[in-house]
Design a protein that fits this description.
Number of helices: 4
Oligomer: single chain
CATH class: Alpha Beta
Radius of gyration: 17 Å
Strand content: 25-35%
CATH architecture: 2-Layer Sandwich
Shape: elongated
Helix content: 25-40%
């Protein structure tokens, strides 16, 4: 029997700015357009888990544990931040959604059962989202 997939949704707001400090403002604008200026998003984060259903509880995971892990390691760090400036992990990386999902995965998996974490989906806007299924 295949295991079901369960998704928990979280929300946070954060700002970022694309660019390279060694580039001119003109080149940053040419490559990144308006995103070369500080701007923010209302992010929607989906954390999907899978695994065997616990016979006693009927659950795949303890949702309060999942909520606590995401709150402590992701929301408390990113919410109302300019994460490309405030989060050391981004010091040598562009603050793209593609990089952000890897950061989020790494923050969650260290305090969570990696066998159950299946996917991170991050909506940057209503029309753009990025999925990450972990390394490898």
């Amino acid at each position: 029997m295949k295991s079901p997939f369960l998704t928990k949704v979280f929300y946070f707001n954060a700002a970022h700015q694309y660019g390279h400090s060694e580039w001119s403002d003109e080149k940053n604008w040419e490559v990144f357009g308006p995103d070369s200026k500080i701007h923010g998003h209302n992010y929607t984060l989906e954390v999907m888990v899978t695994g065997s259903i616990n016979h006693e509880t009927g659950f795949i995971v303890d949702l309060s544990q999942l909520k606590d892990v995401v709150q402590k390691n992701v929301i408390n760090t990113l919410d109302h931040s300019q994460f490309d400036v405030e989060v050391d992990w981004f010091k040598d990386k562009q603050p793209s959604t593609e990089n952000l999902v890897i950061f989020i995965w790494d923050q969650i998996v260290k305090d969570f059962d990696s066998r159950k974490l299946h996917r991170i989906r991050l909506h940057e806007t209503p029309t753009i989202f990025t999925d990450y299924y972990g390394p490898g």
